[in-house]
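During the first year of the project, the team set up a workflow for recording each protein of interest as an amino acid sequence followed immediately by a discrete structure-token representation. This format lets reviewers and collaborators read both layers of information side by side without switching files. As required by the reporting guidelines, we include two representative entries from the current panel. The first entry is reproduced here exactly as it appears in our internal archive.
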Amino acid sequence: MQHLSPRQARLNARANQTIATTSGMSLGYAQANIVIVPKEYALDFYRFCTLHPKACPLLYVSEAGETSAASLGEDIDIRTDLHGYHIIRNGTAELESSSIADYWQDDFVTFYIGCSFSFEESLMSHGINMPHITAGQNVPMYLTDRELTPAGVFSGHLVVSMRALASRDVVKAVQITSSMHRVHGAPVHIGDPTQIGIHNLEAPEFGDPPALTDGMLPTFWACGVTTQQAIYNSKIPIAITHAPGKMLVTDIVNADLHFS
């Protein structure tokens, strides 16, 4: 994938130059999951995130109606700077759009949530292969059987992202990501996927099927798509999220996320 500065990645999205996934884009910089809800539901959603920090690590929470996020990057406009948005009404995905300018409400509160794409660069810099990035694909994501603590109208099960690692690399991957708690931290499960309710790795609920080879060990991290499942379950009148795999690229340097 062509290396772009974070600002150029956002400007490309603003110009409707859509891509399949931001995985591998602007390596070295943090990416963020996005959830936007009316202010009426913002406190409950904030509680849901704080109850589940592995899946929903908060990078920033906006004021009502705020479209920028100065602490995350220069000239961010959350209405246009993602490569894909999901408009969700009453628990049903209504459509995917490249802009939400026409849907914006002055009472919207935006939650910026750490993303596992951010630690992939750290893993690769230590010689750990990320086959989905090489193939230009999205990471596979799965719905597990791990039920989460509800907060108001928000509830659901944990969603995980999976990277098949060479067995020799697993300990190193745990050590690297353990220090990056703002982007999901260490894996939540390693090995047999059936132990967390996943029965077919070839059929992820989100993302692309993995390229599995002999000697690879499935390694699962908590995933920000967990928040989207909570949105669907809540059936609130309207919410907006990033489309899976299409994150906000921020100006935050990944190295600054270690133990921050």
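The second entry, processed by the same pipeline in the following quarter, appears below.
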Amino acid sequence: MDFDLDGHEFIELNNLLKVTGLCHSGGMAKMVIADGAVLVDGNTETRKRCKIRSGQTVTFEATEITVK
């Protein structure tokens, strides 16, 4: 799945999971990040507000998001 930043510099990780529909709420997104269930560029990321920029890849539950 691709996600377009649409002119923005970055999106926070918890917001990315919410707007892509991988998590039904911001609270759920924060919980799965804190539990270590999300990878950014292949590494476990536990910072909820980690800034995701163009060129990075986020993986959650076998879904890979490429940020453009």
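For the second entry, the following points were noted during internal review. Residues 26-34 form the longest helix (9 residues). Residues 26 and 61 are 17 Å apart (CA to CA). Both points are flagged for discussion at the upcoming steering committee meeting.
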